[in-house]
Design brief:
This protein is mainly alpha-helical and 240 residues long. It has two domains: 96 residues, Glycoside hydrolase/deacetylase (TIM Barrel), CATH 3.20.20.370; 131 residues, no CATH class. The protein is built from ten helices and four strands, in the order βαβααβαβαααααα. Helix 6 packs across helix 7. The longest helix is centred in the middle third of the chain and has 30 residues. The two termini are 35 Å apart.
């Protein structure tokens, strides 16, 4: 289980303490750029990538291969094909592996409404957030897995993305229990990356929030079946 770090957050003592606790518990950290940058200007983007490295090196002394794992902020891999290829070449030159995503239900979207409902003490609405969070997790898991089997002709080793947030912390145990009830068995990131699907670059640009299946479908010109959606309207109106 990797935690992908924006080093800017570690400038606050609480952020630094959280990263130290994560590493002390035996979990690795990877690079997510210094301030969650997206690749609009490549020199600045590369500078943000490398600005994050001293913190990762300090927190994880030893072989750099452990922390040279990169996740694109917002899953944006370049605005053009040329930019996409330049970023990939730069990452490869500096020894980075890429942490693609194959399961994503937009968990971050529940944190802001949770903060509003918590401030109001609205327990009924918090319970509604809980139900919709788990329902979305279950729905997207089934959809993303089915999508992968359609594209690759088999089940793959998935990589799940989750975000650090207050509601994620509240829901994590229940979420993982739900996944396990659906037959999920947890493996390491390294084990997942041994699946051949992660060896191929679909070379799709631009991307924004696109999981690997979407990239592959776009590259193959495969029709994407009607996509499941997050309950964004409901989340936007709760506890207003």
């Amino acid at each position: 289980m990797y935690g992908f770090v924006n080093g800017k957050g570690a400038e606050h003592p609480d952020g630094r303490a959280a990263l130290e606790a994560w590493v002390a518990a035996g979990y690795p950290l990877g690079n997510h750029t210094y301030s969650h940058s997206t690749p609009k200007e490549l020199p600045a983007y590369f500078a943000e990538l490398h600005r994050n490295e001293p913190l990762l090196r300090e927190l994880q002394p030893g072989p750099e291969e452990r922390w040279k794992v990169f996740r694109y902020p917002e899953l944006r891999q370049g605005e053009t094909g040329e930019a996409h290829d330049a970023i990939r070449a730069h990452l490869a030159e500096h020894g980075y592996r890429i942490a693609e995503v194959t399961v994503d239900f937009g968990d971050f979207a529940w944190n802001e409404p949770y903060a509003r409902c918590l401030a109001r003490g609205d327990r009924g609405s918090i319970e509604e957030l809980r139900r919709s969070f788990l329902q979305s997790a279950q729905t997207f898991l089934a959809f993303d897995d089915s999508f992968a089997r359609r594209l690759f002709g088999r089940r793959i080793r998935h990589i799940l993305i989750l975000h650090g947030g207050a509601f994620d912390a509240v829901m994590l145990d229940e979420l993982l229990t739900l996944y396990e009830s659906e037959g999920i068995r947890w493996i390491s990131f390294d084990d997942a990356q041994r699946d051949p699907v992660y060896r191929h670059d679909p070379r799709v640009a631009p991307t924004g929030g696109d999981i690997l299946q979407e990239q592959v479908a776009t590259a193959r010109q495969t029709r994407i079946v009607p996509w499941v959606t997050m309950p964004l309207k409901q989340l936007a109106t709760l506890c207003r």
